[in-house]
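Supplementary Note 2. Why include the ligand at all?

Several targets in our set were suspected to adopt different conformations when bound, so apo predictions alone were not considered sufficient. For every target with a known small-molecule partner we therefore ran a joint prediction. The input for nicotinamide-adenine-dinucleotide is given below.
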Amino acid sequence: MSRLFKFVKLSQQNVSCQAMNLNLQSRKWNFINGTPVAPTGHESFYLFEPSTGSILCQIDESSKSDVDAAVRAAQQAFKLWSRTSGLEKAEVLRNTGKLLRERSKELAVAETVDAGKPIWESKWDIQTAFDCFEYFAGLSPTISGQHIKLSGDNWAYTIRQPIGIVGAIGAWNYPIQIAAWKLAPALACGNTVVFKPSPLTPINTLTLAEILKEAGVPDGAVNVVQGQAATGQYMCEHPDVNKITFTGSVPVGKTISKIASESLKRVTLELGGKSPLIIFEDAVMKNAVNAALMGNFLSQGQVCNNATRVFVQESIYDQFVDMICEGVEKINVGNPHDEQTTMGALISEQHLDKVLSYVDSAAREGAVVVGGKRMKIGEGYFMEPCVLLNCRDDMKAVREEIFGPVMSVLKFCTEDEVLERANATKFGLAGGVFTENLARGHRVVAGLQGGVQWINNYNTFTVEVPFGGLKESGYGRENGLAAIEHFTELKTVLVESGDVWTPFD
Ligand code: NAD
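The joint prediction is reproduced in token form.
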């Protein structure tokens, strides 16, 4: 089988121009108390453009005293923001959505420069960000407690109060979406925030903080600091941070959980996955193939809930393999700024090497590898989308999260067998099933151990539905009504209308 991948030749000049327009060299990368300020840490890191491999700028890390200043600003702002009515907060969040819509083109270009993802996808990500602000604008005035009738004239009520200062730490694969998913509900609930984006993709979080200010968020309610593990860890240890909301890998999630347990800080963890997609013989094949493509090659496969283990029933295995290979051949890898490109560059040289080493290990363990080679397109971090055939459950590439454009295809016979194999993982983020037998569809997703499940589709998202994992994929939920529970505390008030009874009187 010849496996030729179309790609659009990268215009280095064009992309550099896009990067230069962002004025990255002159930006002040901390945003504290409503003002951009230069970080004062002694360490610094380079920001690389994944599609060209070129250095965009050098960013100084935030020092501990920068983080302290951000937390202090958030504490000051909390006094005002936590007492702001739901309707007033809604107006600010709606304004944010409007500004994001107006600036969506420019933000999408910046997202593509920063994350290497194709421009069509960046536009989609910006939309998910303004959807999120508009959704939580709608919810903000509805956040309320409960009235509970007690005996006689007595009664009780509950208050949903903000938690306080939220420390938010993001991953690099969905920079603006992750920022929106954390900032919009946190603010809607009356919290104030110190946000640390991934050092690999800090651009749009900073821009979003500026947009939030323009939309009417009071100074200090949203602060941005920069840095790597040490900065994130300091935020988690900070005694005045009341909650950590984290998106990232399982090992770092475990570290954060341990640190936070010292002070019983509230924590939400959105971590990694190795999700199954189960395709039964009665599935509509074209839809199942499209879903497997969506479930593996969005954002160069760097998606936490991707369906990287595709289980296909024995009788349709060969047909599926032919169709999926045909589908993968049509993927356009190349300049992510080109509208025709469907897959861009991986995030870094180091990450590309890691993904390629998984492809090598699968080959050594007996998989048939389709694609999966490094692509020379300028100095960018490109690779061919990859399908691993003849896979076994015990292969390293099938067990571990690769976080790249690598799909493992596995054969199964019966429903009971596939359910057991699909659940034999420490992860529990997502899953999906394709079948025309709806009873079976519901039965299978009920049995799958993952926080988000699809029947007859995959990787469709919308802010109205809760998102989050089971098992080592984390805890807590983002989006939907569920997010409100994770950004508020519940207080109970008991009201006595008569005299106080006691046996001690
Ligand atoms: P990572 O865990 O390496 O880093 C995530 C963030 O944590 C970064 O901002 C990093 O600087 C910071 N950090 C690193 N060490 C820290 C420490 N000791 N204390 C505090 N902060 C620390 O993850 P990544 O490589 O940026 O992202 C990829 C991972 O994220 C994958 O495993 C992916 O599955 C996961 N992810 C999950 C979701 C989800 O919603 N479940 C979404 C996107 C990505």
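The longest strand covers residues 155-162. Residues 169-174, 196, 198-199, 228-229, 232-233, 236, 247-249, 252, 255-256, 270-273, 304, 401, 403, 429, 469, 474 surround nicotinamide-adenine-dinucleotide (CB under 6 Å). Comparable summaries for the other entries are listed in the accompanying table.
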